[in-house]
Amino acid sequence: MKRCFNRLSLEELAALYTAIRDILQRAIDASGTTVRDYRTGTGGSGTFQLELQVYDRAGEPCRRCGRALATTHAIDGRQTTLCAWCQR
Ligand SMILES: [Zn+2]
After folding, report:
1. CA of 77 to the centre of ligand 1 (A)
2. pLDDT tens across 21-30, in order?
């Protein structure tokens, strides 16, 4: 469902802002998203593409290995969904 930004309530705008900020922070924390041959300044691959595959998918199967995704608050106090197998 597509909606215009100016039709959103203040609460919805605040939630959207928080979600965008959280995703950007996670991307920065994960050293960027590796698409094709992008590398970080030190030549490593980013890991955010793994987070994109699990984001908000707690309890669903990992798209990479099929194991159930886990949710934890232990990492940084925010809800984090991850595959304990692929994202060690
Ligand atoms: Zn996995």
Report:
1. 22
2. 888 787 777 7
